[in-house]
Automatic annotation (TrEMBL):
Pfam families: PNPOx_N
InterPro entries listed in its UniProt record: Pyridox_Oxase_N, Split_barrel_FMN-bd
Protein name per the record: FMN-binding protein
Domain of life: Bacteria
Sequence ranges assigned to domain Pyridoxamine 5'-phosphate oxidase N-terminal in this UniProt record: 3-121
Amino acid sequence: MLSEKFYDVLKNEGVVSIVSWGTDEPHIVNTWNSYLVVTSDERILIPAYAMRKTEKNLTQNNKLKMALGSRNVLGYKDYQGTGFVVEGTGKYLGSGSEFEMMKEKFPFLTRVLEVTVTSAKQML
């Protein structure tokens, strides 16, 4: 489901915006492309330090959306820059082998946001 172009974007730094919504209005948090780790089954693992509102929202509604991109990766028709909107479900991991692997890479994390991707659409 995740294209080669998506992986190219992850090789370049850029902002990732994560949108969650519980019973209230949508909430946005940001992280960096370089913090996203894609598993062999194409789940996305994201180190979380704060993200408490996101965690609360996901207990009420596990759906989320993410937007990410890089101006260094050519998009459609060789335009400079491309981006993706990713939709999926999320949950937090606080233990286990994937948590430990992420803690080794990102010692600051307190939890790991696991995103199960349902769609990843290139936008530019």
